[in-house]
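Components:
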Amino acid sequence: MTTMIEVKGVAHTFGKEQVLKDIHLSVQKGEIFGLLGPSGAGKTTLVKMIVGILEADQGEIFVDGEKVPSLELMKSIGYMAQSDALYHELSANENLHFFGTIYGLRKQERVQAIDKVLRIVDLTEHVNKEVQKYSGGMKRRLSLAASLMHDPKLLILDEPTVGIDPVLRQSIWDELYKLKNAGMTIVVTTHVMDEAEKCDRLAMLRDGYVIACDTPEKLKVSQGVSTIEKAFLAYGGREQ
Amino acid sequence: MNVGAVVTRIIKQFLRDKRSLALLVIAPILVLTLIWLVLDGDDYTPIVAIENVPPPIEEALHAELEEDVVQMSEVEATSAFQAGELDAFLTVTGMEPKIILEGSDPTANAAVMKAIQSAFSTITNHPSVKPSVEYYYGSQNLNLFDQVGSVLIGFFVFFFVFIIGGISFLRERTQGTLEKLLSTPIKRWHIVTGYLVGFGIFTIIQSLIIVAYAVYVLDVWMVGDFWQLLIVTFLLAITALTLATLLSAFANNEFQMMQFIPLVILPQVFFSGIFNLETMADWLQMLSKFMPLTYGAEAMQQVMIKGKDLWDIWSELAVIIGFAALFFVLNILALKKHRRL
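Structure:
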């Protein structure tokens, strides 16, 4: 079995607004899968369901063959939300120790994991600095580090590079490729088209449906266009 | 292990937030001191009516109170009491001085007693002369701060724990860390228990400092056991904490949390014993039965003024613990809004 995530007919409503209507998706093990769509398309809602924080009104989601939500599954999922979700009064080291403990890591394991994840996001020299003294980009990277503490088999990143400069964005993507090569499955949401091109496969979300799902190259070719942006518009136009 | 992690994190965070820490301890002390200054002053000059008082005593009283000594019969004094124009009536029959105190204002009572006693001590060779004291409006021999001090300690502990506990739990949600926590395998009751224990440690310290300050520095009337009073205060603080974290689930920001103060906190003050409950309408008295502070204030008054033991006030304590347990469970349920598991 090589499927990591299977989304079957998921629909979800907030109040009167139906955010997701009928979502079908499957994500393979070891790929970087992109969820592309305008803001408000339901990307965050969908990833929260995969993590298990939200539950779908209809449909089911399986991660590695197990139905979500499941506390057992959460041990092997790393989630980086849109907000940085860090304790500002605490240092990077204390934040990571805290999340490590919650994930059930022992002291020795935490020390090793902190060393490793801080090197990945290049924050080793700021380990004892309080988070409130961090810049926006540093907080984003620390947030990524926190979601890597327990070496998850599935990493879910909600808009990971928002507000991050191009150089840093490139270095984060380099790290994502390394993690992927080490066998990690990664789901990334984005509304930035050029970032979508970096994914192995891409699902385009619009008006509560997946309007297209394939590799960036094939999406472009099938619409006879040169950029993902044009492909997105072409698919969206066909729907309406 | 998870609970422990939450507890140590809260302690570290809180120790770095010096201002909030100060609010928890210094603010109640400051307000208590202010109220003490207002209520505990005895510069009030009472108006005393006299009848059949030997001239030397009358002179001594005039020296104490200047013009505020008037001649009146007991019947006249009674109507003056009812009109609120007189603080006390003094008469001497044989060798027995008799004082009738108006009684509703402890400050005035104290001032009258002081004036009369010093008047007697200047003219008699027997300073041991004990006037018989009656209250027109029955009252104890306490000053106002002694009467409400116990309630105030309870109220301020409740109030400041409510604010700080509520806002830090709220912040957990607004800064996204609650969602992050819920994306981990932590159980909901781990989070709630972590908050309870983490903040509980600070409320123990807070209760200790405030109770010690009130009893030993402000010298509020206290005949009960210090440690038993501390336990009552602590239980009340825990109730405030669980209520605060519960209500913070229904606030979207700090300002909305503040809006709970007039809705939830202030009404409790009116029912906590500062004002006489028995004169209120029945339905209002019923309402007070649903307020934790009613039981907390009652328990504190029993310990401080009447010197009762925890065993004597077990029913109040049981209700307070019941409230805390109820809020604790509701907290865990309220987190379901964010994650079902």
